[in-house]
Amino acid sequence: MPARPGSDFAAFLADRPAVLRKGPIALILAEDQVALEETVVHHLRRGFRHVLLLSGQPRDLPGDLDAQVTQLRHDTRRPNAHVDAVNALIAAVPEGTWLYYCFNAEFLFYPFCETRSVGEMLAFHAEERRRAMLTYVVDVYAPDLSRTPNAVDLDGAMFDRTGYYALGRPGPDGKARDRQLDFYGGLRWRYEELLPADRRRIDRIALFRAARGLKVLPDHRFSVEEYNTYACPWHHNLTAAIASFRVAKALTTNPGSRDSIHDMTWRNSCRFDWNSQQLMELGLMEPGQWF
Questions:
Q1: Tens digit of pLDDT for each residue in 167-218?
Q2: What is the DSSP string of the chain?
Q3: First CA to last CA across the chain, in angstroms?
């Protein structure tokens, strides 16, 4: 029996409903109502079998989404709300289930996603003995803040075409971890003085397989180090990208930063075309051996 809109997330997981038996499953944390329906529809079009939509209260969505979307009550506004939510879902699904998580006003892209489903892509990734996929969170923003003060403009979205870089990720011994890097760029780089140091990275392991004892950490990395690698030891692997208005929205609405933001565009701003080819051409995701 499907959950009623607004059912408690923890109670829903405890019932082990049928929708959790097979992935890929998308978990969307709604921090507000901005671009909420568009976020849900985008991920359903990518081919996720089911979407779990978490929020403080149920939202109005078209009725034709009911069969593929379960709305659940969860405190998504507290700091690091993704940690408890993702870890609870990992523990509730069969081991090996492909999971994905994001926030509202974020949109997943992967190489050739216009013609291939996320399930097909993940099946290929699994054949390469990969259990997780690096995603770059690419900041998108409105070109005219006087017209869209919250910086969310789906029709005219812009993003930075340059300014991305990576640094070695040190381990406990001070040496660089194998096949791990910290990635930076976008609004987090240009407005780094307005962001805490632990919020400036743009890498996130957003696609991964559930495993016994696996935990996501507050910084979007995982407790199993191999999950945090960008490729296997033998060759390049697929990576993906998430076009995200989340930072732009926060910078223009939070009291500590909104008075400092007047125009997010600069000489290296580029119109976002909402397709995977543009992101691949700019090096913001890697097709690897995926054809």
A1: 999 998 889 999 999 999 999 999 999 999 889 999 999 999 999 999 999 9
A2: -PPPTTEEHHHHHHT--GGGSSS-EEEEE-SSSTTHHHHHHHHHHHT-SEEEEEESS-----GGGTTTEEEEE---SSTTHHHHHHHHHHHHSPTT-EEEEEETTEEEE-TTTTTS-HHHHHHHHHHTT-SEEEEEEEEEE-S-TTT-TTS--SSS-EEESS--EEEEEE-TTSSEEEEEEEEE-HHHHHTGGGS-GGG---EEEEEEE--TT--B-TTS-BSSGGGG-SS-SSS----EEEEE-HHHHHHHHSTTTGGG-S----TTEEE--SSHHHHHHTTSS--TT--
A3: 40
| CB atoms near residue 155 (< 10 Å) | 7
Q: What angle do CA 231, 235, 240 make, to 5 degrees?
A: 45
Residue 205: how many other CB atoms lie within 10 Å: 20
More confident: 233 or 86:
86
On the question of pLDDT at 5 being above 90, the answer is no
pTM, two decimals, is: 0.95
Amino acid (one-letter) located at 255? P
pLDDT for res 6: 63
pLDDT tens column, 62-108: 888 989 999 999 999 998 999 999 999 999 999 999 999 999 999 99
